[in-house]
Amino acid sequence: MNALRISNFPKICRFIPVNEHFEGDHVVQQLVKEAGNTIFARRFKKGIMAFGLDESIKNTFVSCIAGQLNYHPFQQISTPSSYESSEHRLVLDALAHSIVREGGLRLERRFGYPTLVVVEDEKPERFRALRKNLSEGSVDAQLSGVSNGYKWYEALELHLEFRVDRLWLIILPVLWIDSPAIEGVELLPSMQPMRLIELLSIENQAYTT
User: Fold this and answer.
1) Tens digits of per-residue pLDDT, 119-149?
2) Where do the structural domains in the chain lie, given as residue ranges?
3) DSSP 8-state assignment for residue 153
4) What distance separates the 2 farthest-apart alpha carbons in the chain?
């Protein structure tokens, strides 16, 4: 496990009241996807929390808005907890998209959590320093490949946690496989995930939402 401290993060977001028959977060994500707007939203109690332009928010949720847009001050994100709240997930969504925007990574979901999957062909220069570092201690410095016909990629699963009075981005190195495993077939024998987390340190860039 790896962790990066987040020194600055949003303290407030838009709050959209919705009618009592509105369903859960899966509906929110579907509406965002269908609208194609650059907003981030999560279901929260009697409404929806969101980042984005008011016009885009209204257009996305025009079918379910039940009042005027308001503001929601974050409360749970800076409180120690054993689970990720809707506030954590909203900020994490925006953070993940800001990292992907630099190119060379694609955003997937693993158990509901943002997962950054390497796409070397899209922006090879972004991984040049990482490959060089890995080759010093590893014969094979591949970040993606094919095993038994299945395409695999190095990836990072992201979480947010508030510990010791600070907000942390928790980064878990994982392997992403495009196709599901077939029972009885060993797809990745004797393979250990490399630390793609080094990419963020090597670049020495700060990502904020």
Assistant:
1) 888 877 878 777 777 776 555 567 888 888 7
2) 2-203
3) E
4) 60
SS3 call for 55: helix
Q: What are phi and psi of 150, to 5 degrees?
A: -105, 135
User: What is each CA distance from 77 to 7, 70, 105, in whole angstroms?
Assistant: 13, 19, 26
- Enter the tokens of residue 169: 């981005």
**Helical H segments across the chain, by residue range:** 25-35, 54-60, 86-100, 128-137, 198-203
Three-class SS of 63-82: CCECCCCEEEECCCCCCCCC
Residues 6+ apart with CB under 8 A from 84: 92, 159, 160, 161
CA–CA distance, 39 with 22 (Å, rounded to integer):
19
Handedness of CA 165, 166, 167, 169 (dihedral sign): negative
Q: Tens digits of per-residue pLDDT, 22-47?
A: 888 999 999 999 988 789 999 988 89
* Paired residues of 175 in beta bridges: 154
The answer to whether residues 14 and 51 touch, using CB atoms and an 8 Å cutoff, is yes
Q: What six digits make up the tokens of 116?
A: 């950054």
